[in-house]
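Morning. Coffee machine broken again, so started the prediction first thing and wrote up yesterday's gels while waiting. Chain of 159 residues, entered below exactly as on the submission form.
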Amino acid sequence: MSSTVLHLPKDRVVIVRSEYHETITHALLNGAKSELTKLGLSAELIDVITVSGAYELPAAAAVVARSPKVAAVICIGAVVRGETPHFDYICQACAQGLSRVAESTGKPVTFGVVTANTLEQAFERAGGRIGNKDDEAARAALELYSALKQWEQSQASAS
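Came back before lunch.
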């Protein structure tokens, strides 16, 4: 979206962060908040809600996204593969749940959940060698908000 003007929300942008793998999710949270303010969003418009784990993200996002005072929801978490299929169930439930929230509310709900095979890979995506993946989730939320706002304005002017 670098070639167009970014329309920033006047309503809240809520970051829902999973507490599980707290060191990783705290770094992801810092990256997301930093990206939002770098893009011009006022820090006063950023709220943070903390939930236990990635499985709880969709339920919290659903409640938050239904608020008329919320423009976008950024979901942050980290799921690291273990020796059982639990990883697959959590990742799938989280991804599908967040997708349903976005579709049912029509609001930007971004997936800033790091899914990694090892803790090292997760740390690499939380500000390490690969960068902070939640910069991307934060930017995507504002870009989607902006695109939808531009579309609404074009529809209003066409009427």
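The chain has five helices and six strands. Going to sketch it on the whiteboard this afternoon.
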